Amino acid sequence: MMKKLFLFTILALAITFAKAQTQADEQNLQKAAEWVASLNLGDAAKETRVKTVIAEHLTAVRNWHNAHPAATVPAGINPVTGTKLSDLDREIIADSAMPNSVHTALMDGLKKDLTTEQLEAVLDKYTIGKVQFTINGYKSIVPDLTEKEEATILGFMKQAREQAVDYKNMKQISAIFEIYKTKSEQYLNNNGRNWRTMYSDYTKKIKAEKAAKEKAKQ
To answer: Which of 35, 99, 141, 186 could form a disulfide with 202, with the two C-beta atoms 3.0–4.6 Å apart?
Structure first.
């Protein structure tokens, strides 16, 4: 009796897992379809190919992430800062070990059917438009940002975007962007800027504007 109960439980768990996987696969396919529809390609065959490439990538990223939780990375310290690795650090380390072939399949598949602008639009979907959002932030903090500075920072952000698409959730994606934001701020510092001072001046300005609006309401 106990053996039958055990087998029944195992079977029930297997069915539940299979249903969850199927549902997750369908969600990835739906997301891919929505992203491709926004491109207005006007070519059914091309749309199908691009949708398949994206859905397969989303599924591969999810499967790797689920199979390699943070616990698979030993607790330790960040060798650069000396601070203890956080769960997010360990998640990123585990997910960064995903085979490069997954990323290559996505990029090569997109390049076959999309223009550079369309490909970038897809990558923006993955990262909810963080490239432009971040660039706008730098322009606000550094109002006299030069064309060269903007182009360099944009290059960093595009690197962040392409790397970030291989991560499962927005916390991880934001962490990848932070790496390149640090590079951008170091670049500004190395070229005669003082990032800390500029950021401090910007926050003071925002607080002053907010206080003025609140006072005007009274």
So the answer is: 141
Give residue 150's pLDDT. 97
Residues 6 or more apart whose CB falls under 8 angstroms from that of 37 comprise 47
| Per-residue pLDDT tens over the stretch 81-100 | 899 999 999 999 999 999 99
C-alpha to C-alpha distance for 5 and 16, rounded to whole angstroms: 16
Q: What is the DSSP letter of 192?
A: T
Predicted model pTM? 0.86
Which SS3 state, helix, strand or coil, does residue 7 take?
Answer: helix
Nearest alpha carbon to residue 158 among 190, 183, 191? 183
- Cα-Cα end-to-end distance for the chain: 75
Gap between the Cα atoms of 36 and 122, Å rounded: 8
Q: Which residue has the tokens 């790496």?
A: 179
Residues 120, 125, 127, CA angle at the centre, nearest 5°? 95
